[in-house]
From TrEMBL:
Keywords: ATP-binding, Hydrolase, Microtubule, Motor protein, Nucleotide-binding
Origin species: Sphaerosporella brunnea
Protein family membership: Belongs to the TRAFAC class myosin-kinesin ATPase superfamily. Kinesin family.
GO molecular function: ATP binding; hydrolase activity; microtubule binding; microtubule motor activity
Kinesin motor domain boundaries: 12-339
Cellular-component GO terms for this entry: microtubule; microtubule associated complex
One GO biological process term: spindle elongation
Protein name, entry field: P-loop containing nucleoside triphosphate hydrolase protein
Superkingdom, taxonomy of origin: Eukaryota
Translocase recorded as keyword: no
Binding site for ATP: G94, V95, T96, G97, S98, G99, K100, T101
Residue range from the parent sequence: 1 to 371 of 665
Amino acid sequence: MAASVTSTSASQVRIVARIRPVLDSENDTDVVVSVSPKANSVSMPNPKNEKEKFTFPFHAVYGMESDQAQIFAEVSPTLKHLFKGNDVTIFAYGVTGSGKTHTMKGNKAAAERGIIPRLLTAIYRRGKDLEKKSDGRVTMSAIMSYYEIYNDKVFDLFEAPEKRTLAGLPLREQNGKTHVVGLMEKEISTLKEFEMLYDKANSNRSTSATRLNAHSSRSHAIICVRVEIHDQQTGETKVGTVSCIDLAGSEDNRRTANDKERMVESASINKSLFVLSQCVEAMSKKQSRIPYRESKMTRILSLGQNNGMTVMILNLAPTKKFHQDTLSALNFANRAKTIEVKNDPPPVYHPPVAPKIGAVSGAPVRAFGMA
Ligand code: ADP
Ligand code: MG
């Protein structure tokens, strides 16, 4: 059995799942998530009735043994779209501890580098190639910005944490586009320069989280690289932006939160993730109205506007401790996608409610965080 994409090229949305391995540091070694890479599906028992099994199809699934190079190979085909002047957006969604930062940023060792540093390497390589092949007629510039959205406020990660104003940066509409007023943009000429700025901004992120008595897992970190391709001969410039988003943890903090501040945080995370799922669903189903204006993050990203390509990576932790949150995450992805299953589908749980169009299997859709 193979799951097939309804129409990748037209829908421009891919939703893939990645399951991280059980960590040495984990006491809980009870694995509840299983994958079928052949069927592109993820299965898990119902936490409330272990005899019942839920199966969710994806465009692709990556099991515990998958490495950073394989995950990058999943997103690298978007580069040609970027260089044609289209926008590319890559999200990492999942509960805190499921591997979002590992997937996006990774570690310094060459094999452990995540999507973001690998993308930058590939962008520079492609830019150099273009320049060489055109004898210097075509040149590339890359301009980077990096910010986080915490409690619906935008903070520049290039700015030193002590310089932050608590109100965050304002937004302004110009020519139908939303701009973050005062957000720093840095032209980066070399990979080394990128690494330096990226490391500094990441350390700003953790320092400011500590100052706010918060945790970086409760903010969305958004890195944008605008790639401009100039053709000196024709005077033409193509502009495409790649945005990589390490989303706030999708766990329902309202179950455990007992102070007001955490409740406010949770409400704002839930709202922005909910709008994101609605946007991805609308894009997947090729609806003409994408509700990207309903949240700050999707509005700044202009999600789905500029012939965009979107890849959503659903990060999953395999063990029992995460069972309920993993089910919520799978439900989130399930409502956001349109994937058909071909041939003989395996026995799956059929929800007592009518399945959504395109969602052929899986648990009843429950909006995450909404009891
Ligand atoms: P998140 O950002 O979703 O909170 P992290 O990326 O910080 O989660 O991952 C949690 C822990 O699991 C980290 O220690 C990280 O190094 C480890 N980890 C995550 N994914 C993998 C993976 N694919 N292989 C090995 N370790 C991983
Ligand atoms: Mg993280």
